[in-house]
From TrEMBL:
<dbReference type="InterPro" id="IPR019494">
    <property type="entry name" value="FIST_C"/>
</dbReference>
<feature type="domain" description="FIST C-domain">
    <location>
        <begin position="263"/>
        <end position="411"/>
    </location>
</feature>
<dbReference type="InterPro" id="IPR013702">
    <property type="entry name" value="FIST_domain_N"/>
</dbReference>
<dbReference type="Pfam" id="PF08495">
    <property type="entry name" value="FIST"/>
</dbReference>
<dbReference type="Pfam" id="PF10442">
    <property type="entry name" value="FIST_C"/>
</dbReference>
<feature type="region of interest" description="Disordered">
    <location>
        <begin position="1"/>
        <end position="20"/>
    </location>
</feature>
<feature type="domain" description="FIST">
    <location>
        <begin position="58"/>
        <end position="262"/>
    </location>
</feature>
<protein>
    <submittedName>
        <fullName>Uncharacterized protein</fullName>
    </submittedName>
</protein>
Length: 441
């Protein structure tokens, strides 16, 4: 059932509903958001509405994410039945997060509805991820460059994670998409955050809402209006389970050799697991390979690591299949393991620090992009690691979150794909004051 909002009457409203019927879930969520914008579906849909009943704030577009059990066409049908032909950005998620709770049954629909005051400056779509992610990224970067955006501007970037044109399905490589993007963006790019969409924890499918309809093998960038400023932080939760090792052979996302030995054999030895035990655990996003940046021998610090999930193993070649293809021969890596207590502690610490940086600013809305593997359903947690975000940020402004395949955020100087993280973005109105910051990386 839909839940009430803590922030009625804003330029942004959140709707969330669970229902076995996709169209019904979408309609319930849309009605809830419309009510918060002081609209009624009746007066909005009328061809010639009564001027005395004109809506206080007309909606302009929405972010929407739906659980993997729902048919995307039915979700769009339900949204359009209530909202009309507004641009819908978003797609599939393995669950939805709002201030009222986190749910991952697969039957959720969550949305964030924006008024005309927050209409996007541009919506840019690029197809062809299944052919060449880097080429798609370059095309996207060229179009963003033409807008002459400054570093203070904010861009939301979404793509569908799964390439279902391969057999078996594979992952679109976000690292290549972002490499191509940064090749053409120049030296002073806007702040870019976003995600890869995903329908389920088995990584079997994904889809994207690109503002025109439902699509696959596509990326969409939403350039938010100039009056918004972005503030972000990253939640972590992995610990090293090995000393430093060296990648000695790799083919794209297929990690073949570590320290001159078959990669699978090294993992078996270091984690003291048999091959049969590893094969029984596929998919394997609980095993992660981390690369530490900066001083390798400095004390452990989450902020130095880029981690890559192991999503499958190839026993024939004794290879590990990673989510991304950004390691190379010579990369110094460590086998990582997730630590549930660290996930919760990191979410609490990082959210508190970001909220402190928001002092003196006017929050407008917040978006929480959380790795699907961090959900209670997968990680086996007794506590919901999104609780600090929901409680501390949900009390400030409308909040929408979803469980994703890949998280995108600024990390070590540029936008990067991240694994096993939570990315929190809070958008504020107007220029920052002396007590706040425009970004928090």
């Amino acid at each position: 059932m839909p839940m009430p909002s803590n922030h009625p009457g804003h330029d942004v409203a959140v709707g969330q509903a669970r229902h076995a019927d996709a169209s019904t879930a979408a309609r319930l969520a849309a009605r809830q958001a419309l009510d918060q914008l002081r609209l009624t579906p009746h007066c909005y849909r009328q061809p010639n509405p009564d001027p005395a009943r004109e809506p206080a704030q007309k909606p302009a577009w929405l972010l929407a994410f739906a659980g993997g059990q729902h048919d995307p066409a039915a979700i769009l049908e339900g949204l359009r039945a209530e909202l009309g032909p507004l641009p819908v950005i978003g797609g599939s998620g393995t669950g939805i997060i709002t201030a009222q709770g986190a749910h991952s049954s697969g039957y959720e629909c969550g949305l964030m509805l924006f008024s005309q005051a927050l209409a996007p400056a541009a919506i840019i779509r690029v197809a062809g991820l299944e052919v060449d992610e880097a080429a798609a990224g370059r095309a996207l970067g060229q179009q963003l460059n033409a807008l002459a955006l400054g570093p203070e501007r904010l861009v939301l970037l979404f793509y569908d994670s799964v390439n279902n044109k391969t057999c078996p399905p594979s992952l679109h490589l976000c690292s290549r998409l972002l490499d191509g993007l940064h090749q053409t963006l120049g030296t002073d790019p806007p702040l870019i955050l976003g995600a890869g969409t995903l329908t389920d924890l088995e990584m079997s499918d994904s889809y994207l809402f690109d503002g025109e309809g439902m699509t696959r093998h596509t990326a969409v960038a939403v350039v938010l209006p100039a009056g918004l400023r972005g503030h972000n932080t990253i939640m972590h939760g992995c610990l090293p389970s090995s000393d430093f090792l060296e990648v000695t052979r790799i083919d794209g996302a297929r990690l073949l050799e570590i320290d001159g030995q078959p990669a699978l054999r090294v993992v078996e030895e270091r984690l003291r697991l048999t091959r049969e035990e590893l094969l029984a655990r596929q998919p394997l996003p609980s095993i992660t390979i981390g690369e530490k940046h900066g001083d390798l021998y400095a004390p452990f610090n989450d902020d130095q690591y880029v981690n890559r999930l192991v999503v499958a193993i190839d026993p024939t070649e004794e290879a590990l299949i990673l989510t991304e293809a950004d390691f190379h021969p010579g990369s110094r890596i460590q086998i990582m393991s997730y630590a549930p207590e660290r996930m919760i502690a990191s979410a609490q610490t990082q959210t508190e620090a970001l909220r402190e940086r928001l002092t003196g600013l006017q929050p407008v809305f917040a978006l929480y992009i959380d790795c699907a593997g961090r959900s209670m359903a997968f990680a086996g947690l007794d506590e919901d690691e999104s609780a600090p975000v929901r409680e501390l940020i949900g009390a400030l402004c409308p909040l929408l979150g979803f469980y994703s395949g890949i998280e995108i955020a600024p990390f070590i100087g540029r936008a990067r794909p991240l694994d096993w993280t939570g990315v929190l973005l809070v958008c504020t109105a107007g220029a920052p004051t002396s007590s706040g910051q425009t970004t928090a990386n």
